[in-house]
Specification:
- The chain is 24% helix and 30% strand.
- The N and C termini lie far apart (43 Å).
- The radius of gyration is 21 Å and the shape is globular.
- It is an alpha/beta fold and 364 residues long.
- It contains 10 helices and 18 strands.
- Its cofactor is [2Fe-2S] cluster; FAD.
- It comes from Pseudomonas lalucatii.
- Keywords: 2Fe-2S, FAD, Flavoprotein, Iron, Iron-sulfur, Metal-binding, Oxidoreductase.
Length: 364
């Protein structure tokens, strides 16, 4: 993967919806993970304002394709002047290996605005004063670390971090965590779990680690088996699903695969009998026309509605809306949980009407 193929220059035009940001600093965290600190120009400060736990999506040209990858911000909007993403190498990862090997300070990257719902205080449980139990596995520490730093700075909540890694050399943010634990000894407890010492985290160990923390709010991010173990154990213990937040990342398909999926979904919806499409946005209802085959997002844009959106590929969650009446068909989903789908949430960029009447509402 040659650098001349991937680096942007200030004069190059990004794809619609994304922006050029310059790398201000590169920090080598471990042998296989590094952080990129991004410089955001003044005119984009509002567009790139973010919540603790959100991620940025990068679009990278590669062999005639435009690959998209999401990386969580390890920075905190309350503690850090500039956003910082942390990328760990993935075996055969085209983008993650390039990010770790080639990107340097001064390079320009094509970036989508912040997105994601794995955010501190989003549920407003107990007025935001309940204890936080954070589970991070490997590079899954990144959004968890953002939440941890913000919670220490902006709340009085007690925090317990359980951080699982392959071995001690794999621990990202080791020194920063040690310093935070020392400075916040009464509020912050950090528990390291190393595969090389204890083996993989088990359900029994999770039960032991959460004992005595009734009423806590849980945030979980890491490898799939790690998250499944923690989430499943918490549910078995009777923890309400509303108190459990899980962040799962799946790399989007290559553009040609995505186009094929979109074409198939569009063809399947061309016989839609939808006669009435109502969109609730910012407290107002809009009756808009529907063209068979179009997504909800395409219909909203055609009607001149400025609904929230970002990637338009089904992985960022920026265009989440709730189906209030009727039914939709969701072509692609890499962000909504089973509970969110059951609650009526859908993605406007991937959803098409499958009923005669449809009413959706975007969050205020």
């Amino acid at each position: 993967m040659g650098t001349q193929q991937l680096h942007l220059t200030p004069s190059e035009q990004p794809v619609t919806g994304s922006y050029r940001l310059q790398v201000a600093e590169v920090i080598d965290e471990t042998a296989d993970a590094r952080s990129l600190v991004l410089r955001v120009p003044a005119e984009l400060h509002e567009r790139f304002a973010y919540k603790p736990g959100q991620f940025l999506s990068f679009r990278v040209p590669y062999q005639g394709k435009l690959l998209t990858r999401c990386y969580s911000m390890a920075s905190s909007p309350h503690c850090d002047a500039l956003p910082k993403v942390t990328i760990k190498r993935v075996a055969d990862g085209r983008v993650s290996n390039w990010m770790n090997q080639e990107v340097q300070a001064g390079d320009w990257l094509e970036v989508l605005p912040p997105a994601g719902h794995f955010c501190l205080n989003e549920s407003h449980l107990d007025d935001g004063d309940n204890e936080l139990l954070l589970f991070g596995g490997g590079s899954g520490i990144t959004p968890v670390f953002s939440i941890l730093k913000s919670a220490l700075r902006t709340t009085q909540r007690r925090i317990k971090l359980i951080y699982a890694n392959r071995d001690e050399a794999s621990v990202i943010f080791k020194d920063e965590l040690r310093q935070l634990a020392k400075a916040n000894g009464e509020r912050l407890q950090v528990v390291h779990v190393l595969d090389s010492v204890q083996g993989f985290l088990t359900a029994a160990e999770v039960r032991q680690l959460v004992r005595g923390h009734a009423g806590a709010e849980f945030f979980i991010c890491g490898p799939g088996p790690f998250m499944d173990t923690v989430e499943g154990t918490l549910l078995d213990l009777g923890v309400a699903s509303a108190r459990i937040h899980v962040e799962r990342f799946v790399s989007p398909p290559d553009p040609d695969q995505l186009q094929a999926q979109q074409a198939e979904a569009r063809a399947a919806s061309l016989d839609s009998s939808c006669a009435s499409l109502t969109v609730e946005l910012d407290g107002q209802r809009h009756e808009i026309p529907y063209q068979p085959g179009d997504t909800l997002l395409q219909s909203c844009k055609a009607a001149g509605l400025a609904v929230p959106s970002s990637c338009e590929e089904g992985f960022c969650g920026a265009c989440m809306c709730r189906v209030e009446e009727g039914e939709t068909r969701l072509a692609r989903n890499d962000v909504l949980s089973a509970a969110e789908l059951a609650a009526g949430w859908t993605l406007a960029c991937q959803s098409r009407p499958s009923s005669a009447q449809l009413r959706v509402k975007f969050p205020d």
